[in-house]
Amino acid sequence: MKPLLKPLASIFLVLSILSLWNCKQEQKETSPQEMPKPATVQELGQMNRDFVEALKAHDAVAAANLYDENASLLPPNEDIVTGRENIRAYWQGAIDAGIIDASVKTLDAKSDGDLGYEIGTFELRFLGPDNDTIVDTGKFTEILQRNQEGKWISLYGMWSNNAPVETE
């Protein structure tokens, strides 16, 4: 009987070690992933600074690429614009309307994981019908998401003008 005890004890020892090692591996695999570090105001505001540069360059494709494929714009006094291609067409309309300059200022921005927001003010300058300059000022809100490349892009953009809508 003693000759059987040695091999059984060895098998038991090996099985015990394997069992403990498997438990340790399962703990590593099921531990919660680290949350990404919150983005800075500078990082979150980059999307809109890039957007302004695209508008000033009259590049609607570059402007639209700052939005998620299924993003939506919520412009004042207009229907919702959904999808990157429709957003490209919308901003092409602004370019065609004679935009000559744009600027943004971030007032606040925060993130939690891969979602964030930015609020701020904007100023747009358009060439008017009499070669005058039309200035449009207002405020905006962007809901942002960090994409797979780590870049913040817009999911939803909403803005309103500071001046009241003119009535006839």
UniProtKB/TrEMBL annotation:
<protein>
    <submittedName>
        <fullName>DUF4440 domain-containing protein</fullName>
    </submittedName>
</protein>
<dbReference type="InterPro" id="IPR032710">
    <property type="entry name" value="NTF2-like_dom_sf"/>
</dbReference>
<dbReference type="Pfam" id="PF14534">
    <property type="entry name" value="DUF4440"/>
</dbReference>
<feature type="domain" description="DUF4440">
    <location>
        <begin position="48"/>
        <end position="152"/>
    </location>
</feature>
<dbReference type="InterPro" id="IPR027843">
    <property type="entry name" value="DUF4440"/>
</dbReference>
